[in-house]
Amino acid sequence: MLPELKITQLRHFVWVAELKGFHLAAEKAHRTQPAISLSIKDLENKLGESLFEKRNTKTTKTELTPFGKSFLPKAKELIEHHDRIAQDMTLLAEHKTGHLRLASVPSIASRMLPEILSKFVENAPNLHISFFDDNAGAVLKMVENKQVDFGIASMWEADEHSDKTFTPIWEDQIGVVCRSDHPLADKSELHWKELRDHRLISNGTSRLLQETDAAPLLTSSQFYISNMISLIAMLEQGLGISTLPGFAFPQGNPNLRFIPLKEPDIVRQIGIIQMSNKSLTPAAESLIQFILDSTGKG
Fold first, then answer.
1. What is the predicted pLDDT for the residue at 95?
2. How far apart are CA 37 and CA 228, in angstroms?
């Protein structure tokens, strides 16, 4: 017979694991430490395995057993799934019209979606929207894990994602970003070979250079920065140059220049990504159609 796992006990387990202590977990749960210990003990009895190593009196830290380490991501997944359902049901009970979840790459999230969403919700004032912005890989993961109804991103290596559908909406050209006083700043366009004598900072979108003549630039890149805010700060400091799609370039930044890369001429496609075998909610279908109509792709 399968064990009946209680969400409260799973929360207690995750808190003890992440905070590395029963005392801190008890404070977070607003319970006594013995109560948390009993909760974890009951969960271990149900699972038939110990979740935590026997505590060393010389240290206050609590360490997971190998079984506990394997169980931790599963427990988090169960909690997230429970909370999503609970949130949906609460909205229905409050007579909301629905809950829409979507994720997007930051460039579209900041440039395109504010206007689109503001117009869309004019006719859906009771629609609850949860919005996440992250890099393309993270957006794909959220779509795969059904954390969102659909995502907006580029589809890297589309042949490896046969379980998803991609509807292209926007496209932008790859360019070089440098400080305004950089030697390349006065150029109107650039050839990739002109970048070889300058320090290149690669980022999540640099993979667009792969399979092109400019691929050698990636192997010689001294820095990799995944976070866009940090990347912009490093570029403003003059640490080096980087390649970015046009939409990702911060508009109105007086300290940086964007110069189109003409050789190779690389265009990034961004669109709607959804699971092929998953039906969309009416709200999600309506927003996708609204995006298509707004961009002339409908």
1. 44
2. 42
